[in-house]
Design a protein that fits this description.
This protein has about 210 residues and is mainly β. The protein has helices at about 35-40, 80-90, 110-115; strands at about 10-20, 25-30, 45-50, 60-70, 70-75, 90-95, 115-120, 125-135, 140-145, 150-155, 165, 170. The chain starts with 9 loop residues before the first strand and ends in a 38-residue tail after the last strand.
């Protein structure tokens, strides 16, 4: 069996959201601050698609990148027409990244995030154990402090994760109530739907039937 090669460091830069026109163009959802620099002709992207997809394990090469009515649109050498474009919709695009190159603002490698302390209100509440990349958003998977098996799924958005401090070894979270703890249950209201307290009901004192 051949030895495995060194793991590649990759950066997620976009998602294909919709076929556009008849010549194989695809509209993009961008995850990069430098799309014109990333989507240059000849740039090669690894595809994140389901194993059942005909594109699984394949790469695509940029033929052209342009803006149409403020929407980013890309053409690939491997996608010749609309029919082919529709088979690759929802694929996530990854590019090999030289770690010596500057990282874009608000962009981190998974291995930089894994292991960071998760800090809430100045106290550590867990540790990042992995990062899940979903079509809608990324998730930080957090192992809560004192729980060797539990996992909390934290949406990796600025409203909930306002600070990532790689040098300090932490991410700061401001989660909504109930994400890291169970909310107290409201006591059941003993009042019946008709407003009568069940405890005050008198047996046999039901309304007469017509």
């Amino acid at each position: 069996m051949a030895a495995a090669g060194p793991a590649r460091t990759q950066l997620r830069v976009g998602r294909l959201v919709k076929a556009h026109g008849l010549k194989g163009a695809l509209k993009l959802e961008l995850y990069t601050d430098d799309p014109d620099g990333r989507f240059v002709p000849g740039a090669v992207f690894t595809l994140q698609v389901p194993e059942s997809s005909p594109w699984h394990g394949k790469t695509v090469t940029v033929r052209e990148f342009r803006w149409m009515n403020t929407h980013p649109v890309v053409f690939f050498d491997e996608v010749e027409d609309r029919s082919a474009a529709e088979t690759i919709v929802r694929a996530i695009l990854w590019i090999d990244q030289d770690e010596s190159a500057p990282v874009e603002d608000d962009a981190w490698y998974d291995h930089q995030l894994v292991g960071l302390d998760v800090v809430r209100d100045g106290a550590s509440v867990g540790r990042v154990i992995r990062v899940d990349h979903l079509p809608a958003q990324d998730l930080l998977i957090v192992r809560p402090s004192g729980d060797s098996q539990g996992e909390i799924l934290v949406p990796f958005v600025s409203a909930i994760v306002p600070e990532v401090d790689i040098a300090g070894g932490k991410v700061v979270v401001t989660p909504p109530a109930g994400l890291f703890e169970e909310l107290p249950r409201d006591e059941e209201d003993p009042t019946d739907d008709d407003g009568t307290d069940a405890a005050d009901a008198v047996p046999g004192d039901e309304p007469d039937e017509d």
